[in-house]
Task: structure prediction
Amino acid sequence: MNLRLIGIGAGVLIILSLPLAGAIAGPDFAGQDDGKGGGLFSALGLSDSSPTGPEKPARSPAAAAGPQQPGPPEQPRTDSTCGPEVSSPHGVEAQTCVLVAEGRTWGRSYYRNTSGRALDAVLTVMGPAGRTVQIRCAVGPGDEPGLCETPREESTGAPDSYSAVAEFAVPDDEGQLLLRSGSNSPAPGDG
Result:
């Protein structure tokens, strides 16, 4: 076999596999990569952390000098209190939560509507001192999951003083209730 042909083939294979290796490796969430230009491509000398992009020649990591690019901004922590996932024999599944982040509180209900018809959902968040926020969401039929979420309001009191309830009903004069899901509902089988 021709060694030159084998060498060229191996080189092409390595070059083509680098983007795939970077995609598979993804970001390092273990804290080893602080977003300051590290990672697989930088270690191989193939990335440039300057904002002008790839037109400049690649730099060796050992020779890199100057200001480092900051990593992505940290996302604020969101705490949640969620009730159990519940379902109805009519084909509606839901889980409702109270979320708290950056001094704001809101309600969210995750749902799936396989009933075959459009429904209405009313999501209510109840807080301390009788404060209530309510929103109505149209729930289309289908197997795809969806969510209904209230506006984020300034928090007052402890996070455990909030609760949320979502009610899924047929949107007609009768308004037949198909499912009620709460953030502080006991899990099925609990007392």
